[in-house]
Amino acid sequence: PLFDDALTWRALREAITALDNRAQVSLYLRRKDGSVLAAEVRARDLPFQGRLQRVVAVRDLRELEQARDELLAEKERLRVTLESIGEGVIVTDIAGRVQYLNPVAEAMLAISHGEAAGRSLGEFCRILDEDGGAAADLVQSCLEQDAVTQSPHGCVLWRPDGREFAIEHSAGPIRDRSGQVTGVVLALRDVSEMRR
Question: Would you give the distance in Å from CA 153 to the centre of its chain?
Fold first, then answer.
């Protein structure tokens, strides 16, 4: 047999017995060689020769677990990368609602990711042109043009606490695997020192 540990067999039998028709359960099973198998166990009652018989399938979940671990590692690398960038990075969905702010963006906008998430960027982020009027909405321009858009020179980020930063900013579309635009990434760069 594949498994020779009495506890493993008992756990497997108990799981099979407890499963409702078409239900499934995930288990860690010890193999004969001592290795551990992450498994999904499914059971289904089927008629056979006038009686219901329980049919059981055991699926090895190693590849699924490995893919999950790789995805989590990739997500962590992305998070660390975004938090290490020296520019403010803001990610929005296609409706302009904030999905992510890196720490530099949080500092520039004086708002935490938690406070900003799900809110419209325009609620707390005002960007003015060199004449003091509202600058073009780069997120909207990016979505309309389906391309990276750049701000004109002389833009200022104004915060509700009255603080201002001279900035350069750009916006680029975020695409899924099929090429569909799912959001926008906005980069804000504080150029106050360079403009003095």
Answer: 33
Helix (H, G, I), strand (E, B) or coil at 78: helix
Chain position carrying tokens 């419209």: 120
Helix (H, G, I), strand (E, B) or coil at 81: helix
pLDDT digits (tens, 9 = 90+) for 12-43: 677 677 766 556 778 777 777 888 878 888 87
- Give whole-number Cα distances, 60 to 29, 87, 113, 131, in Å: 10, 44, 39, 64
Can you list the positions of beta strands (E) in the chain?
24-30, 36-48, 51-60, 88-93, 98-101, 126-128, 149-150, 155-158, 164-175, 181-190
The whole-model pTM stands at 0.67
For residues 133 and 136, give the distance between their C-alpha atoms in angstroms, rounded to a whole number: 9
